[in-house]
Design a protein that fits this description.
It is a single chain. The protein has about 200 residues and is mainly α. The chain has 2 domains: about 100 residues, Orthogonal Bundle (Rna Polymerase Sigma Factor, Chain: A); about 80 residues, Orthogonal Bundle (Arc Repressor Mutant, subunit A). Helices cover about 65% and strands about 0% of the residues.
Length: about 200
């Protein structure tokens, strides 16, 4: 059954069949949300909110782009809105963010028991630097790099989602990489400074 056929059945009253979309696209939506919010609980909540929005917006799907592209657009917009709302409250950064990686999957294995606490703390701090650097990028760069690196989408697919050209996407990804390198390099240098140098 194609996405279009499923949509037609849902709009004709068969709401139960929507679960097919949830099963098909849930991992994709969750992975993208994780790229923006870096926290499994937040990504889970956001994924549920997105599927509610997808269900409520089905009548508005015109079929001008692939259904997956349409869902990606909703996911990116919802994720950016979530980040904007949260950005004013960064001092209350949730502690559990320290225990998840940006690329964490639902079935990821726990850290090895052989890993010593100091190594774990260093790893967690490095992950937080990456997350903070990613969060500080302009929205269009952040979106392009997340769709590229977290979702392994082609530049053509990203261009469709972001409603721009492949050339613009390539430029955004390159700028994002350059900015991330600068920010991470600066963070590393700051970390290595002695108290006197600071």
């Amino acid at each position: 059954m194609t996405d279009s056929e499923i949509i037609r059945l849902i709009l004709n009253g068969d709401r139960q069949i929507f679960r097919i979309f949830v099963e098909k696209y849930q991992a994709m939506v969750f992975r993208t949300c994780m790229g923006f919010v870096h926290n499994k609980d937040d990504a889970d909540d956001l994924t549920q909110e997105i599927f509610i929005q997808v269900f409520q917006s089905l009548k508005g799907f015109k079929g001008e782009a692939a259904f997956s592209t349409w869902i990606y657009r909703i996911t990116v917009n919802a994720s950016l809105n979530k980040v904007r709302k949260k950005s004013g409250n960064q001092l209350l950064y949730r502690l559990d963010k320290l225990f998840g990686t940006p690329r964490e999957k639902e079935n990821s294995l726990p850290a090895s028991n052989n890993e010593n606490p100091e190594s774990l703390l260093i790893k967690q701090e490095n992950e937080k630097w990456v997350q903070n650097a990613l969060d500080s990028l302009p929205e269009n760069q952040r979106t392009a790099i997340i769709l590229s690196k977290y979702d392994d989408l082609s530049q053509k697919e990203i261009a469709e989602i972001m409603k721009t050209t492949e050339g613009a996407v390539e430029a955004l990804i390159q700028r994002a990489k350059t900015n991330l390198r600068k920010k991470l390099s600066f963070s590393f240098k700051e970390k290595r400074k002695t108290p006197q140098e600071k």
